[in-house]
Design brief:
With 182 residues, this protein is of the alpha+beta class. The protein has 2 domains: 42 residues; 122 residues, Rieske [2Fe-2S] iron-sulphur domain (Rieske Iron-sulfur Protein). It contains 1 helix and 9 strands. The longest helix is centred in the first third of the chain and has 36 residues. FE2/S2 (inorganic) cluster binds next to loops.
Length: 182
């Protein structure tokens, strides 16, 4: 092997090493959010949603739905946005002796996902986007929504003024069935 051949071989090896040194960290950076998602850290998986305290029972007025925001750290592929509203929940305290004592509805419209409001007189729920209407039990009042408002799991603690805990979940829109999103 001549000195020139050795020089060329050295160049090839050095060039390959430099490409590897650049490519490996770059690939690791690109793959990192995908690994996080696979490990369940990249977003809230519906099945594993914790119950979270939204109010105490004494804060709720019987027969009057009240809205509570859901605040979470939101993570997209690359960035974490701390303490952002990701949805809201309507809580409705039932009359004394009724079971369950508190009902929770997702405020996300089952039609196309807009936020459902309460009418000014508090007599029904109304979605401003395409006029889906629901009664205070969450049942459809017109043909626009494909299903009733989505009920959420609720638990009351055993405290003297019980904490109202809700499992916040999102569900597929435009479906007649309530299908949790992963
Ligand atoms: S998104 Fe609510 S009516 Fe269409």
């Amino acid at each position: 092997m001549t000195r020139r051949d050795l020089y060329r071989l050295g160049n090839v090896i050095l060039g390959g090493a430099i490409k590897l040194a650049v490519a490996v960290p770059a690939l690791a950076f690109i793959a990192s959010p995908l690994r996080k998602k696979a490990a369940g850290q990249g977003g809230a998986a519906a099945a594993g949603e914790p119950m979270e305290t939204l109010a105490t029972l004494s804060q709720l007025k019987v027969g009057q739905p009240q809205s509570f925001p859901i605040i979470r750290d939101r993570t997209d592929a690359w960035v974490t946005y701390p303490s952002e509203p990701v949805g809201s929940v309507w809580l409705l305290r039932q009359p004394e002796g009724a079971k369950p004592e508190v009902v929770a509805f997702s405020a996300e419209c089952p039609h196309l996902g807009c936020a459902i409001n309460l009418t000014p007189d508090g007599s029904e729920f109304l979605c401003p986007c395409h006029t889906s209407a629901f009664d205070l039990e969450g049942k459809q009042k017109n043909q626009v929504p494909p299903r009733p408002m989505d009920r959420l799991d609720v638990e009351l603690t055993a405290d003297p003024d019980p904490k109202v805990k809700v499992r916040f979940q999102k569900f597929r829109t435009l479906a007649e069935e309530k299908i949790p999103l992963a």
